[in-house]
Amino acid sequence: MAGETILVVDDEGHIVDLTRMYLEADGYRVLTAGDGEQALRLWREEQPALIVLDLMLPKIDGWDVCRRIRAESDVPIIMLTARSDDVDKIVGLELGADDYVTKPFNPRELVARVRAVLRRVAHAPDVTRPLMAGPLRIDPARREATLNGRPLKLRAKEFDLLHTLVEHQGLVLSRDQLLNRVWGYDFVGETRTVDVHIARLREKLRDSPVVIETVWGVGYKLVVVDQAG
Within a domain: residue 229? Predict the structure, then answer.
């Protein structure tokens, strides 16, 4: 993984310099951007392996940058937030961020998180076989989901969550298991983001036999309900 390109996006020069120094010392090639427009341009031109993205940016803020990237790509994103406000963390994760770091941060911790996210992506199983759950079809290779042959419009993490539930259909997965499988780490105490994504998926599966059931005190499972009779 050393030698891969990391894009660091922050308008505070001292943070950029410090982050670049530690990442380069770990063997990464580092690109930097000071605003959202430049970040999007460099992302398209350079296709970095991972993006470290500040939320508070000139021109285009970090939330919007993340939203635009997630509409086209699953490149790993680690968000930087100047506040420890849980709302920032939850919104960032719901937009598709893979991890977050709160300022001020230890640059060694950030490098460790970069390594962990890249390692997880590199070791992710290459599962490309389409999966079926009744009229629901999941195509991991194309990252497409269809219901009764019609495309489902899903955000990146919604797709990952639905894919995980279909892979384990009929089995109960706890919120912590879903956080670990979909977001890739234990986000202790913040299972609300799972509930928000489940609610969105239920709305998109409404009036179909594909149901995400709540198993109280445990978690969720996906089942296909027999509608005969």
Answer: no
